[in-house]
Write a structure and sequence with these properties.
about 5% strand, about 230 residues, mainly alpha, 6 helices
Length: about 230
């Protein structure tokens, strides 16, 4: 086993006193001083070359060991990653709602318009219904109707002075019995409330554009309002 790289070794001076004993043995065998030193130098070179070969083999062997260890480490890490990925996918599969992507949608600023079911059915079927159902009063009737089944529920309603207050739902008159104001009896203010809402509802139920405009124009004319107004 080498402690130092033989490629870095420097050949000794065999004519020095340090190697005199080794030279003397060769001299006693009939070598001259010069031949003895040259022979020792040649023997050292032969051995050094052999050591270089062994050194190279050893370094290659160590490199192969390091490469295998690194390869095994990478395979082990990859196996761990695969296991974690498989566990993550299984978790997402079991809990789809938890990992469902969030849709960044703009929060609507307009209140949700929910007309009476009767009006919705009529428009969905392609039949016209009164604008009353899309006025503030008509929409309030629907909201109260949805709560009237709960006797302990409270309903916010405007008073005569315009201030809203909470009142028991049971104390409110059943909106189903409330009269429906015909289109020609609507005020211009009520028409302005209802028309945009009904147009939107018509479009939601795939009414043709010309049908929508014709219906609204007929109501406007019935109120005595021309297009120029």
């Amino acid at each position: 086993m080498f402690e130092e790289d033989p490629n870095e070794a420097i050949r000794p001076d065999f004519t020095s006193i340090e190697h005199q004993e080794a030279c003397q043995q060769l001299i006693e065998e009939g070598f001259t001083d010069e031949q003895a030193a040259r022979s020792l130098a040649a023997l050292w070179t032969i051995k050094n070359n052999a050591d270089k070969v062994c050194w190279a083999d050893r370094q290659e062997h160590l490199e192969n060991i390091r490469w295998r260890e690194e390869e095994e480490d990478e395979q082990h890490l990859q196996a761990l990653k695969d296991e974690e990925e498989a566990a993550r996918l299984e978790e997402r599969k079991k809990n789809k709602s938890k990992y469902a992507p969030l849709i960044r949608a703009k929060v609507p600023s307009d209140p949700t318009i929910i007309p009476a079911q009767y009006a919705t059915r009529r428009l969905k079927a392609g039949d016209y219904c009164e604008l009353h159902y899309f006025t503030n009063k008509g929409l309030d009737d629907v909201r109260v109707s949805s709560l009237i089944a709960e006797p302990d529920a409270l309903v916010m309603l405007p008073s005569s002075d315009g201030i809203h207050s909470w009142v028991p739902a049971a104390a409110v008159k059943d909106p189903k019995a409330a009269p429906v104001v015909k289109d020609e009896h609507l005020s211009w203010e009520q028409f302005n409330e209802a028309a945009p809402r009904m147009i939107l509802s018509m479009k939601m139920h795939d009414w043709p554009e010309d049908h929508v405009l014709r219906r609204v124009r007929c109501v406007a004319e019935g109120l005595g309002v021309s297009e120029s107004d």
